[in-house]
Amino acid sequence: MTIIGTRIDGRLIHGQVANLWTTKLNISRIMVVDDDVVNSDIEKSGLKLACPPGVKLSVLTIEKAAANILAGKYDSQRLFIVAKRPAPILGLVERGVALPELNVGNMSQSPETRSVTRSVNVVDEDIRVFDELNAKGVKLIHQMVPGDTAKDFLPLLEKVR
Fold it and tell me: Residues of the signal sequence (predicted)?
């Protein structure tokens, strides 16, 4: 398995992902899975600038990301998958990508969200997707930075149901 980590982070690539996680896990490629960002040249340019030197970047649709992973395109690389919300991750799993664990890192606050932790805010659709991922055998954890202890995410989610 070449997928070293999978993370939800509304900021996609920034200090925690670009420096801490990439370094700690010795990542050689960051894959952003987002059907909207893939069509935004401005967002893609920003992601390229934020990507650490020596680390490759892919910004792909759910469909293309799953196809590339299943075709073994990244088998020689250490892949870190990042998405803003859980739905793209569920899309990968539904297309046959085996993801044993998902780190729910940062989901921004908005008027529609409810706070799970200081850094994770969800809407009802996110809760439904997290439940579905859990039902499909994906272990859900919450760990902001590598030095933090990983916590089981489902008990944290219970307080906002």
Answer: none
